[in-house]
Amino acid sequence: MSQRDIKKVVRQHKELEDFYTGGFSVKGKAPARAAAKSSQDDGGEMDKLVKEMCECCQCSLGGTRSNCVPGEGNIHAQLVFVGEAPGADEDEQGRPFVGRAGGLLDKIIAAMGLGREDVYICNVLKCRPPDNRDPKPEEIIRCMPFLQRQLDIIKPKIIVALGAHAARTLLNNNMPIGQMRGKFFDYYTSSGFGPIKLMPTFHPSYLLRNYSDDNRRLVWEDMQKVMAELGLKKKK
């Protein structure tokens, strides 16, 4: 990636960040947690981190990507969605969850009464694996510090891990997603901040491949638990 491309991605990230307000509205008022964080210089730290991601070539994915996909959203968000890795659409645009799975994630977020401007969305890997293959262990090892630092900057109240790969990576286990989903786990950032409640659930792409009322219901049950923790009202 050229220096011009790197500057473009950093600029786009900064423009998104400037647009988003600190924290999202819960029952009509901004949470004190988010208001307190908004006074910190987190924006500059995130910009530096995005630049590092876009310059990174620690694994082979740095040579095959079209664009790095750092993540986007509200850096003061109480809710962060973490997926596995960018796909073809994400690699082309440099943005997370913009393909079919992203469209479904947008609907899930909207059903919670929120928008992309209220949350932060990112992936464990910041570059697309060729042919959308599963991440390799060495790629996760190289990329995981970026995600840990993002979470350290954002300090969310809740993380939603989308799919088995994201959940297993964050929780450092090998449990099936069916056994993890629907339960809160404790997560600590690299600096020791926490515990952050972490909710594993099915990845939107899994729902697209295995579309059924039962699977949709399970994900919605998971999101209702997240909403309850954040004080968001359930839709009737």
Structural features:
236 residues, alpha/beta, Uracil-DNA Glycosylase, subunit E, six-stranded mixed β-sheet, 6 strands, 48% helix, globular
CATH architecture annotation name: 3-Layer(aba) Sandwich
Tell me the total number of β-strands.
Answer: 6
Which class of secondary structure composition applies to the elements?
Answer: alpha/beta
Strand content: 5-15%
| SSE string, helices as H and strands as E | HHHHEEHHEHEHHEEHH
What does this structure look like?
The chain has 236 residues and is of the alpha/beta class. The protein has a single domain, classed as Uracil-DNA Glycosylase, subunit E (3-Layer(aba) Sandwich), CATH 3.40.470. A hairpin with an 8-residue loop joins strand 5 and strand 6. Helix 3 packs antiparallel against helix 7.
Give a brief outline of the structure.
With 236 residues, this protein is α/β, with parallel strands linked by helices. The chain is 48% helix and 11% strand.
Sequence-ordered SSE layout with sheet pairings:
Elements: H1 3-19, H2 32-37, H3 42-55, H4 61-64, E1 72-73, E2 79-83, H5 88-93, H6 100-111, E3 120-123, H7 137-154, E4 158-162, H8 164-171, H9 177-180, E5 185-187, E6 196-201, H10 204-209, H11 213-230
Parallel strand pairs: 2-3, 2-4, 4-6
Antiparallel strand pairs: 1-3, 5-6
Helix pairs in contact: 1-3, 3-7
